[in-house]
Amino acid sequence: MQRCIVTGANRGLGLALVTQLLERGARVLACCRDPAGAKVLDALAAANGDRVAVHALDVADPAAIEALPKAVAKHLQRVDLLVNNAGVLVSGERFGNVQAESLAESFAVNASAPLLITQALAPLLALGNKPRVLCVTSQIGSIAQSASFRTVSYAMSKAALNMAVKRLATELAPRGILVLTAHPGWVKTEMGGTGATIAPADSARALLNLIERAQMQDAGKFLAYDGAELPW
Ligand SMILES: NC(=O)c1ccc[n+]([C@@H]2O[C@H](COP(=O)([O-])OP(=O)(O)OC[C@H]3O[C@@H](n4cnc5c(N)ncnc54)[C@H](OP(=O)(O)O)[C@@H]3O)[C@@H](O)[C@H]2O)c1
Questions:
Q1: Residue ranges of the chain with pLDDT lower than 50?
Q2: Ligand 1 centroid vs 200 CA: distance in angstroms?
Q3: Could you tell me the distance, in angstroms and rounded to a whole number, from the CA of residue 133 to the centre of ligand 1?
């Protein structure tokens, strides 16, 4: 996993993933919506020279996804690991107040983007060394464990992401590309909140170990960061 791409890399789990990939000696294309505001990422880039490139990517922008392979080819030449990490959670949703815009944004960012980005980068992944794609999902996307109406846009979009991963895994396995979906735990980030139980660095380390050790027979699995298989 020497040539890596992370989306939503400017804060939270994405930033922790970039930090740990650099510690492991990788080259990283760190994608975020607003590079000018990504101060911590900038500092990482300054400290790590040409091993980090920061790239502007709003994952909800199809034109930006279409342009992504060119930037990736320039900075990495091939892709060993793609982490579809960027995500959005609309808080406060209750039955009666769900907005169409919340559903549309959640699906665009959480479900459509990982599928479209993986599709766009498949040729560069095919050139990679044991190429793999990690889609960061949530246990909240488990239909089997669904018990309340809260954050319904998020839950629906992560369930859709899980289906996308299953389809991508089947399509890409014959090309040697391993795709799986993993829940990072309840992580102390802006999304997870201060009550969360896991530090971003610990979740990132566990996720990277998980995807690094995954075998082709794990393609399409819905796992937790500790390796436990989750019910769909
Ligand atoms: N934290 C948890 O407990 C938890 C639990 C389960 C799953 N997850 C998943 O873990 C992943 C990372 O979440 P986090 O906890 O690190 O959340 P976070 O702190 O809220 O960070 C979300 C990241 O996604 C980026 N993002 C949102 N919309 C984007 C867009 N349209 N284009 C590009 N980037 C966009 C944000 O960028 P901006 O700064 O530009 O907004 C930010 O970098 C998400 O997929 C989330 O669903 C988190």
A1: none
A2: 12
A3: 17
